[in-house]
Amino acid sequence: MPRSVNSVASRKRRKKILKAAKGYFGRRKNVYTVAKNAVEKAMSYAYRDRKNNKRNFRALWIQRINAGARAHGMSYSQFMGKVKANNIDLNRKVLADLAMNNPEAFKAIVDKVK
């Protein structure tokens, strides 16, 4: 019985990896074994950094809210505590956007919670 090799599937699998490695430097873009390692590493970084991206944005929103609150004589923690106590259901993303792009609306919120 002849040896059966599914070369169609093998080629498809290799092409998929090499396509993902497009734009990489040196042998990482055209040697399958090197490209496979590079693509695997890139995928793990992409997965990790999709989580880190959320952290980074939350930190950015907190900084913007803190700057906005301090401009009205209040710290971030005091402001957020009073926002929760007054049942104002605005998340950090919205509050940060108001603090940056709509300071008068943010001032209204600060005056309401004071």
How is this structure best described in words?
The chain has five helices and no strands. The chain is mostly helical. It has a single domain, classed as c-terminal domain of poly(a) binding protein. It starts with 6 loop residues before the first helix and ends with a helix. The model has no long low-confidence stretch (mean pLDDT 96).
SSE-based structural type: mainly alpha
Could you describe the largest sheet, including whether it forms a barrel? Answer: none
The name CATH uses for the topology is: c-terminal domain of poly(a) binding protein
| Rg of Cα set | 26 Å
Q: What string, H for helix and E for strand, traces the elements in order?
A: HHHHH
- What is the CATH H-level superfamily? Ribosomal protein L20, C-terminal domain
Distance between the termini: 85 Å
Strand content: under 5%
- CATH architecture assignment name: Orthogonal Bundle
Low-confidence stretches: none
**Percent helix:** over 70%
The general outline is: rod-shaped
Q: What is the number of domains?
A: 1
SS summary, helix count = 5
Number of strands: 0
* Average of pLDDT: 96
CATH class: Mainly Alpha
